[in-house]
Amino acid sequence: MNITESIFGELNGHIIKSYTISNDHGMSVSCIDYGGIITGIYVPDREGIIENVILGFDTLEEYIIHSPFFGAIIGRAAGRIAGSAFTLDGTVYQLKKNDGEHHLHGGAGFHQVIWDSAAEKGLNEANIKFSYISPDGEEGYPGTLEVTVNYTLNNDNELAISYEAISDKKTIINLTNHTYFNLSGDLKRDILDHEVTMESDHFLELDETLIPTGEFIHVENTPFDFRAGKEIKEGVMSGHQQNVLAGGGYDHPFLLTTGEMTVVDSASGRKLAVETDRPSVVLYTANMLGSDFKIRGVQSKSHLGLCLETQCPPDSVHHEHFPSIVLEKNEVYKTKTSFKFHVV
């Protein structure tokens, strides 16, 4: 295992650090302390060719100007909160409106802050630790929240992301990571031929503003049935009302029967196996990715990547039958998701 550190840029007088963790089998992960952004994941294909399998930029300026949350830590609450407000114990908390009338991904959230960072190397794994104290009232959320996120790479080609947080007031929290995967390597192709498999019997119906209606829809006989594996293009081309309103693809929460998912790109032979302790995942297929910038020389376009945002369902604070995102005072929030790479 090896860790290297460099300067990625400067923001408001702060030096932004970049870390690269490399294991003994050719896999490496790069990240920066602005937004806790994962800027690169480099893994071999079936021929042993090592390429980057995520979307990202080479400069800080591009992340600030163009990035749709590429690789970032998302918080305090992932996804949309309807009406940009919620109520806890009779008190209404007003959040920033940054998605029409709704609040998205924590507003000016964790994806835009500069995290404290530290690196630690062991024999068979290495770790980058990011920490941040979100003050009471930041973006409208109650409580001073102390957050720690660890990125740990081991010699099994597995990247584990673990989250821990504690608040001095009752609050809400729903953290995730927003990495866009493209297993073709260096963005040679889009992700329409990627095959996703997940054990999920129900997805959440969305309204026209992409807020969950509260209805659980069974996946049987729909483009949302990934239980036996399905290529992304089936949903993109389906004409299903839910695929259409999401911009021609997926931007939907799936309730997980087990916490295991896979993504396979048959052309490169790369396989991603995801394991999480979260009750749901938002599958987003970059339907609304802008085309006004380039990603390391490749023209940005729809369906260039896919996200597996492991979390509680978005807007859970407004649906009592959803898994709760309420965090009690001094209660420890703890969760973990791992991403393991194989070849097939």
- From the N-terminal CA to the C-terminal CA, the straight-line distance is 24 Å
The chain-level structural class is mainly beta
Beta-strand content estimate: 35-45%
Main sheet, how many strands, which sense, barrel? 9 strands, antiparallel
Rg, nearest Å: 19 Å
DSSP summary, beta strand count: 29
> How much helical structure, as a percent, in the residues?
under 10%
Shape: globular
The number of helical segments is: 3
Q: Return the average pLDDT rounded to an integer.
A: 97
The parts where pLDDT drops under 50 for at least 5 residues are none
As an assembly, this protein is single chain
Spatial strand order of the main sheet: 11-12-13-14-29-23-22-17-20
Describe the structure.
This protein is mainly beta. 5% of the residues lie in helices and 44% in strands. The protein contains 3 helices and 29 strands. It has helices at 60-66, 232-236, 241-245; strands at residues 2-11, 14-22, 28-32, 38-44, 50-52, 73-74, 80-81, 85-88, 91-94, 103-104, 116-121, 125-134, 145-154, 158-167, 171-172, 176-177, 195-198, 202-206, 212-218, 230-231, 251-255, 260-265, 270-276, 280-284, 294-295, 298-299, 307-311, 326-327, 332-343. It has a 9-stranded antiparallel sheet. The protein has a 5-stranded antiparallel sheet with strand order 1-2-3-4-5, with no helix packed on it. It has a 5-stranded antiparallel sheet with strand order 19-18-21-24-27. A hairpin with a 5-residue loop joins strand 4 (38-44) and strand 5 (50-52). The protein is globular and about 60 Å long. It starts with a strand and ends with a strand. The model has no long low-confidence stretch (mean pLDDT 97).
